[in-house]
Amino acid sequence: MAGPMLGITARAALLATCVVAIGCGAPVVAIEYRAGYDFSRSERSAIQRIADRAARDVRPLLPGLPTDLRITVQAGDRVIPETGENGSIGLPAAVYWTVDPTHEGGVLAVVTAQLRATLFHEWYHLVREGKFSPQTLAERAVNEGLATAFERDFGGAPTPWGAYPPEVRAWTTELLAVDPPVPSRQWMSAHPDGRRWVGYKVGTYIADRAVRESGLSLAQLAGEPTEKILSLARVQ
What is 36-102 written as a DSSP string? Predict the structure, then answer.
């Protein structure tokens, strides 16, 4: 019996080695950390794990996504208060992610709750803004709305900036009538009248209408110019 038992043990050991090797494969996403905060081993591991899984999951949904994705992670307090983090892009394939270590639960809590969804949002921007870089308020609202709808539908986290109110149609008419050089920040962030995220909410409303009226997916709409999306949404 010693021979067969040894063979089984050897095969089990080989299988275990293979499983470990698969689990410790090359990262899918290249991640770098900026100086100023010493991210712990567990924080770095969680960021890498969630980013890699998000990249695998998003590719079937966004075929136009660049091949070599990069994320630059830094600590800071210029974040969305509700989430403790914020993202931006650098074409053609970079995402810049800021996390506030003092946010409730610390870095690990923010990573677990928000990183995947934010990456879905920013990766959508990489696909769309490689073709259509926003120059006007309407273009920016539509770009952010499409990315927010994609994040909401596939990212797995709440998107309060995209939760539009019953009066959103009036907001849409109001925003589309704005002439330059009115600062876009007051429409995209904090309006003087107290409203927040008007452009995001209007853009998400337009994205939802464009999907519903056209039957196209959000990934397909990423390749359409703003004027076409406004026409599909029937808001003009």
Answer: TS---HHHHHHHHHHHHHHHHHHTTT-TTS-SS-EEEEEE-S-SBTTTTEEEEEETTTEEEEEE-TT
Give dist(CA 188, CA 203) in Å, integer. Answer: 10
Task: Give yes or no for a cis peptide into 63 (omega within 30° of 0).
Answer: no
Q: What domain count does the chain have? A: 2
Q: Output the CA torsion sign for 218, 220, 222, 225.
A: negative
Strands 30-33 and 85-90: unpaired
Residues spanned by the domain of 167: 137-233
Output the six-digit token pair for 27. Answer: 């990262």
Quote the pLDDT of residue 24: 53
3-state helix, strand, coil in the chain (%, to 5): 55, 10, 35
Same domain, 125 and 153: no
Distance, CA of 159 to CA of 118 (rounded, Å): 10
Residue 142: Cβ within 10 Å count? 29
Give the residues across from 87 on adjacent strands. 97
Residues of the chain with pLDDT under 70: 1-24
CA 180 – CA 161 distance, rounded (Å)? 23
Residue 210 falls within a domain, yes or no? Answer: yes
Among 99, 129, 159, residue at a domain's last position = 129
Task: Determine, yes or no, domain membership for 205.
Answer: yes
pLDDT for the residue numbered 146: 98
